[in-house]
Write a structure and sequence with these properties.
With 358 residues, the protein is α+β, with helices and mostly antiparallel strands. It has three domains: 141 residues, no CATH class; 40 residues, no CATH class; 148 residues, 3-Layer(aba) Sandwich (Trna Endonuclease, Chain: A, domain 1). It contains eleven helices and 14 strands. The strands form five sheets. The chain has a five-stranded mixed β-sheet, sandwiched between helices. Strand 10 and strand 11 form a beta hairpin. Helix 1 crosses helix 8 and helix 5 packs across helix 7. The radius of gyration is 26 Å and the shape is globular. It starts with 7 loop residues before the first helix and ends with a helix. The C terminus is likely disordered.
Length: 358
């Protein structure tokens, strides 16, 4: 669940970066208001964003339609015309394209707006703002939120402004949980850890893509550095997919973003807290295999979202020539301080000698 120490204004900033919708003036307006609940923030983003989209014009697309018509339009479906005996009524079954707003993107927007109005913990003024949008979506079909295929929604230049809006919608719908009453649903107060983890990863990657394109931010797969002399069952090796990889001329930094309720593990007898062993082993494997020249030019950093626990990851060591670390990102800080923490990570790409003496 989302930690209450995350500043709600930072949730907006994370969404804006993650869905490539950076608008500084919009951010200033959002931060100028107080949001006591996450649903209020999401409702505000949708109210503003969909309102602006209505003024620009809702996204439209050519949609396949079939209808029984008195005049020919598009292509005649002979099979259906014969099967329904349409000619006896002086009609033909035609298939044609209709340029309209009843697209999957707009259906998702309408579905989630109605969901927030009915079940979200949203203040009365923002519910009213959402209701005022519904007449503009009157021609859009209302569908069940759980039927939305998020992975099938594509984006291009004509509908790029929908990226943030539908990202917000997906977070809202992912918060749906069944209640004890059969057939009823309610919105959870917070987004699940799994969804926040995905948002956290994407936010960090897109932050560096926006501010540091010279570092070629990406999420490539690290290849296993095999000897090649004896190889068998290579296809059974698991893929090593990175969250964020930054590259300068001579150095590479692999960042693994971790959004966990507990950023440290406790020993069996509770006498010691350490970095999660499986996370450290994973990062060591990524780093050693990526450092094909064995020159220590690849570093690895476990970047945890900071929690309220008394012990926090603060590791910076060199293991067999490669710098490995674990630290936290405090999402509860004001944005300027949070950004300073992200910028400090870039120093890990300085030359090897300088980095290791920090």
């Amino acid at each position: 669940m989302i930690d209450r120490t995350i500043a709600i204004s930072n949730v907006y900033v994370m969404l804006a970066y993650a869905f490539r919708a950076i608008r500084s003036e919009g951010k200033d307006r959002i931060e100028g208001q107080r949001f006591d609940h996450l649903h209020d923030l999401l409702a505000e983003i949708l109210a503003r964003g969909v309102g602006a989209q209505v003024k620009r014009g809702l996204h439209r697309d050519y949609l396949d339609r079939r209808d029984e018509l008195a005049t020919v339009r598009g292509r005649i479906n002979i099979t259906r015309t014969v099967a329904t005996r349409s000619t006896t009524r002086g009609r033909l079954v035609c298939e044609f394209d209709e340029y309209e707003a009843d697209t999957p993107h707009n259906r998702a927007l309408k579905s989630v707006i109605v969901l927030l109005i009915r079940r979200g913990d949203v203040g009365t003024p923002r519910k009213a703002a959402l209701r005022r949008l519904l007449p503009y979506l009157d021609a859009v079909t209302l569908i069940a939120p759980t039927s939305i295929r998020w992975d099938a929604l594509t984006y291009h230049r004509a509908n790029a402004t929908y990226r943030l809006l539908l990202g917000v919608c997906e977070l809202v719908v992912r918060g749906l949980l069944p209640t004890e009453n059969p057939g009823a649903t309610q919105l959870t107060s917070w987004v699940s850890d799994e969804q926040m983890n995905r948002l956290y990863e994407r936010f960090i990657r897109e932050y560096y893509a926006f501010h540091h394109p010279e570092l070629s931010p990406g999420a490539p797969t690290v290849a296993w550095d095999l000897d090649g002399t004896k190889t068998r069952g290579v296809e059974q090796l698991p893929a090593m997919r990175t969250d964020v990889t930054l590259r300068s001329e001579q150095r590479t930094l692999i960042v693994d973003a971790k959004y966990y309720s507990e950023s440290m593990q406790v020993s069996k007898w509770g006498s010691k807290t350490t970095v999660h062993s499986e996370h450290l082993y994973q990062m060591l494997a990524y780093t050693k295999n990526a450092d094909v020249h064995r020159d220590g030019s690849v570093s690895g950093l476990l970047l945890y979202a900071r929690t309220n626990a008394p012990d926090q990851p603060d590791l910076d060591v060199v293991i067999q020539g490669n710098r490995i670390g674990a630290r936290t990102l405090d999402l509860g800080r004001p944005w300027d301080q949070l950004r300073a923490q992200l910028e400090e990570i870039v120093t890990w790409l300085e030359d090897k000698q300088t980095a290791l003496t920090q």
